[in-house]
Every structure is written in C-alpha cells, then in structure tokens.
Amino acid sequence: MSDPLQHPxxxxxTALRGSFxxxxxxxxxxxxxxxxxxxxxxxxxxWILPLIPASYQPDALLHRYFNTDMGFPVxxxxxxxxxVFTTFTGWxxxxxxxxxVIRQGEMLVDRMPVVRSVYSGLKQVAExxxxxxxxxxxxxxxxxFPRPGVWAVGLIAASAKGEIAAKLPxxxxxxxxxxxxxxxxxGMLLYVPARDVVMLDMKPDDAVxxxxxxxxxxxxxxxxxxxxxxx
Length: 231
Description:
Elements: H1 6-48, H2 58-66, H3 77-93, H4 96-109, H5 113-130, E1 139-144, E2 151-159, H6 162-167, E3 174-181, E4 186-193, E5 198-200, H7 204-212, H8 222-230
Antiparallel strand pairs: 1-2, 1-5, 2-3, 3-4
C-alpha cells in the first residue's frame, strides 16, 4: 500500500525541479552573454590602454582634473579609444593625403618578405569580408560532406575565381563553401559544383547556432516561433 504523503512530496520536488530548469534556461544565456562581453571588453582594454601615454591614462586624467587618486575601474575605455581611432583612420584614408600615406606604407611593406605575405593575406580577407558589393557568408546551404549521402551545413563564401576557377575540372560553375566544425573552433573550405549545393532559407547566424550546439538548437520558422511564444 503506497504512502499518501509521498505524492505531494514528489509533486513539490517536480515543481521545484521544473522551476530550477526554467530559471537555468533564462539565467544561463544572460549570464554567459554578460561574461563573454565583459571578457571581450577587458581583452580590448588590456590591448589598447598600454598604448596610451601615461599622462593620458584615465587615472592620470582624474588626478589632473579632479585632484583625486581614486582608481578608474570602469571598463570600456580601450573599446571607446579603438572605435574613435578606427573611425578617424577610415575617414582620413578616404582623403588624398590618407591614400598617399597608405600607398607609401604598402610600398614599404612589399619590401619585407614575411610581413608582405601576412599583410596582403589579411588585407584581402578584410576587404572581401567587409566589401559591400560582395555577398559573402550571407547564404546557407547543404553540401554532401565528407562522403555522398552525408550532409553538412555550410556558408557560401563566394564563387570560385582566378586560377582556381580556371583549373578546376569540368568547366562548370563552382562555389566556395565554408563548412564549420562543431563547436566552430575550426572549419574547412570546399569548392563544390553549384548544381550540387542545396540552398537553405536559414539565416547565417541561425546556421552558426546550429553548428555550435551540435544540432541541439534548431531555428524555428516564424509561425512555429510565434506559436511557441504564445504558449
């Protein structure tokens, strides 16, 4: 004969467990997001602040203008300096003097064997990634990888160009597809025939979430998402 007191206890424990898991679902993403943003700001501060002269450090400015030795614990000064400096550099680079200085600097870099290779590669990647006229990584697809019958989610980088497009066999259109490896710590670049690529309506950020979560976080369609939120 079962004890009638056990059922309420189990119900209470089940409710507490459900509330804890629900709270964990709410708190964990917020906490991890705050932690990642805080750590990233601290990393940029640690990289930028040592480049600022000592007389212009936040602590020195507080002592000079407010006559106080109180520390400056607020993060984000390095991020602010980085944003202002990058914006000013971009503005100056659009002018005649800026273009001339950049051209002279690149001519100097071209004379350095190792530095030349690193700089040219990074510059090409940055120009391709941030170019407004080039559609890069804004389309998702499915490709058969690593063997026929097995499908992987990929991001379309661009169409094959230059020597690669000329020397790939078959003479058909090829596209460069980046296939990320869970948890997106690395990936592979594949050149796939355009006819073998299955295009998806999934957004790139949703595809990245799917890869990072090892398939656990699947993006819901708008209708299903609205129905899920209305519950």
